[in-house]
Each structure stands twice: as structure tokens, then as C-alpha cells.
Amino acid sequence: MATRGFNGRDRSAAAGRPDRLPPGQFVTIDFPVLSAGPTPHVALEEWSFTVRVGPRAIKSWSWRDFVRLPISSVTRDIHCVTKWSKFDTTWEGVNIQDLLADTALEVPTEFALAHSYDGYSTNVPVKDLLGGRAMIAIAYDGKPIAAEHGGPARLLVPHLYFWKSAKWVKALQFTERDEAGFWELRGYHMYGDPWREQRYSGD
Amino acid sequence: MQRAAKLLWQSASVVAIEARTPTVKSFFFRLAQPVSFIAGQHMDVRLTASDGYEAQRSYSIASAPEKTEYIELAVERLQDGEVSPFFHQTVAVGDQIELRGPIGGHFIWSVEDGGPVLLAGGGSGVVPLVCMLRHRAARASAVPAVLVYSARTAADLIFGEELRVLRARRDGFHFIPTLTRETTPPPGFRVGRIDAELLSDALACLPASPKIAFVCGTNAFVETAADALLGLGIPATTIRTERYGG
Predict the structure, then answer these.
(1) Contact yes or no for B104/B40 (Cβ under 8 A)
(2) Would you place residue B185 in the very low, low, confident or very high pLDDT band (cuts 50, 70, 90)?
(3) What's the total number of domains in chain A?
(4) Is residue A2 assigned to a domain?
(5) Does B102 sit behind a cis peptide bond, omega within 30 degrees of 0 on the bond before it?
(6) Share of chain A above pLDDT 70, in %
(7) Domain ranges (residues) in chain B
(8) How many CB atoms lie within 10 A of CB A124?
(9) Parallel, antiparallel, or unpaired for β B117-122 and B212-218?
(10) Domain annotation covers residue A30
């Protein structure tokens, strides 16, 4: 249905690359902050990251140990379910397959839940975490990630809506079933593909 | 777990438009398929150009869930915006606009959730909080509630008169407006940005520590208010935030 009198803004921000803007999104040059609660401030000396299989902790890293893992760099577009997209964001961190290699784990299950310091969680299929598609990011735009953007470390799964890229991440738990996380329990989509506009459950 | 059916877009008629402040207008929509919602939820709006280009935005619902004949969305006109200037300049009574919702399962409150509740809103961030207060009043609830509302000037206070009327009911609702760009405020207003002192005074209005604190506004407002509440001993798990814009 065309809306009477609506022409839309100048589309030049996405011009030449409409293929990069998923449906219903607009391009921003800002980096908006969206969080369900107060920003936790986690000191690096107290930070740790744990891989679990079900309830069982397989391995934990201190910050010192974590940053000695292989560090990769990616430049990706990111898409927030609140409709903004930001092109060409650059991140550094540890790819999930490199993390798994350090635990000597084979891929243990098909699903995973990321857990955060503020109690947040989100679910991602394991295949979406491997093959360089996801990392535990520790730097944004060449600098440590600001606390309000999820520092010291956040999950980065840029091909899914950005709520899947959990801020203040502290654990990755492999699960037998696809278990809903924080927003997924509150009406948001279990998978969250921006190209299929999977914003809300039922989309 | 919520396994809702797909939220469908529906065409809604604009039945009234009301200027709230120099930069905020309320749009009242009649939905062909009325939706029931919880105070604090939002609706998605979709505009479509003749060439098929679409723009979507989310707006918090201002009207109480008890008002079933319309849904009120308060839209602040943003500089360089795409959707809000269109609403302010072009949308007229009788227009059809596509909406879907309600959306959101965290920044929500019903009288059944109880209290006390602390509400802190900055600018248009007050909208979902006003929805909660309208719901509380519509249900004749006596749940203790306090609203700290920060606006630039007295003229920028959305729903200011209505909030003063609600305060005058003396039913356990306290209202502390503060103005950030006025040096000599009208009676009953505080001056200055939200801070620990203001929030401490708000907490003192409540008979007990809040069961839930809702904070909504720009990121800077939310960070300041949420950090101040943490500093005042309010547990992080009781603080729910919603951040507007960048």
C-alpha cells in the first residue's frame, strides 16, 4: 500500500549498494545504543570467558589468556532490529572456531546460547558461529569496545540482527535444543535473519 | 515461551492529530483490527513510496490499554529525520497508515505487576511511562509510583497538564518535573539534568524501594539515570531501560 504523500528520503546513503540494505532498514552513520538494563562495567582483571557444554564448563580464559588466542579482523555491515543499519564496521576478536580449537572440542551440539554479565542471553545455531561468521570481539574500529557498546567483549554475529551479538559476553554454552534467550522469550524471532526480515516471532 | 502468530501489518485511519509541544504531535489511529497491548509496548509504522521504497520506525504507545477505540502514538519531529517530518508535515486526518504490533515484552508494566514503581523519562522517552500512568489511573490503582521527567523547557513537557491532574488525585502518584534549559522555572519544577539528588528525592516519595524502575530517553539520559540508581543501591536487575535514537 503506497502511503499518500510519502516519497522517502534521498536514498543516496544506500545508493549504489541497495543490495546491502535489508528490507525495512535505514542507514545510519551513528552507532546507537540499545540495552535492556544498566550498562555493566566489567574490569579486565575480573573478566573471564567460559565455554560450556550443557551445564559443564569445558574451559575458561582470563583476559590475559584470551587475548593471546588468534585474533582476526573483519569489516561487516550490521543491522539492528530497531531498523538502523551501519555499513563497514570493523572488529577484531577471536573467531569461534579458533576458540573451539583451543578447547580441543569437536562441535558438540547444533545450538548455542551466549550468556552475558548482565544476565542477558541469546541463541544462535552453531553453524552460524563457525566458518568465520562469528567472533568474540574485543575491539571496534581499532580501539577497545566501549562499555555501552558491550566491552570488554561482545559476541559478533553480523549476518543476524544485532541483538544476537550479545554485549558483555561471558560464556558460550552449547545446548542440545534451540533454547530461547532474553529477547527470544519476549516476542523476538528465534533466528533473526535481516534479509528475511525475521524481526518478531512468527515473521 | 511466547509463540505468537505472525504480527500482521494493517491499515489504520488517522482519526485525530494533536500538537503536544512545538516538536511533538500525537496521532490517533483507529485500527480495523484492534489490538490489545500492555503499557510500555510499541507499534511499528511502515510508510511506502510509490516506487515501493519502504521506511519503518517504532513508536511507543501513549494511550492506555483500556482505550480501545484508538491508539495514540506521540511522534517527535527529529532534525534530518525521514519518518517523523513526514508525520508532522504531511499526515492528515483521514490518511491510512500501516501499523503492526504490539511489540516488546520487557519494558512493560501492568497494575498486576505491583510496585512501587519508579519512572524516569527524558524528552519523548516519557511516552511509554505516560502509558503506564494512564493505565494505572484507568484501573484506579493505588500502586505507589513516582515519575521524574526531564524536558528542555516548560513548553517541551509532553502531557504536562495531564500529569499535574494525575498528581492532584493524591492516589500514591508523585510527579517531579525538571527543566534543563530554564534558569527560573515555574512553580513546582526543578532545574537541571537528572542526577542522583533528584532520583534520591524521587525514591523518598515511595514507601519502599522500587520493585521495578523504568528508565527511558536518549542513551545519555539513560546511562546517567541508570548509573545514578545503581549508586543509590537499586539493584541492576530491577532497572529496565529503553533508549531512543543515537
Answers:
(1) yes
(2) confident
(3) 1
(4) no
(5) yes
(6) 96
(7) 10-102, 111-244
(8) 26
(9) parallel
(10) no
Whether B223 has a pLDDT exceeding 50, the answer reads yes
Whether A90 and chain B come into contact, CB under 8 Å, resolves to no
| The CATH number fitting domain B111-244, selected from 2.60.40.10, 3.40.50.80, 3.30.470.20, 3.40.50.720 | 3.40.50.80
Q: Which of A131, A136, A128, A133 is nearest to A93 (CA)?
A: A136
Q: How distant is the Cα of A33 from the closest Cα of chain B, in angstroms?
A: 6
Least confident segment among A79-83, A94-98, B4-8, B169-173: B4-8
Q: With a threshold of 0.90, does the pTM exceed it?
A: yes
Residues of chain A positioned with their CB less than 8 A from the CB of B229:
38
A70-79, B73-82, B167-176: range with lowest mean pLDDT:
B73-82
pLDDT tens profile A174-190: 999 999 999 999 999 99
Query: What architecture (CATH level 2) is domain B10-102?
Result: Beta Barrel (2.40)
Contact A38 B5 (CB under 8 A): no
ipTM: 0.91
Place of cell 555493566: A40
CB pair distance less than 8 Å for B219 and A39 = no
State whether B104 and A186 contact (CB < 8 Å). yes
Strand partners, B128: none
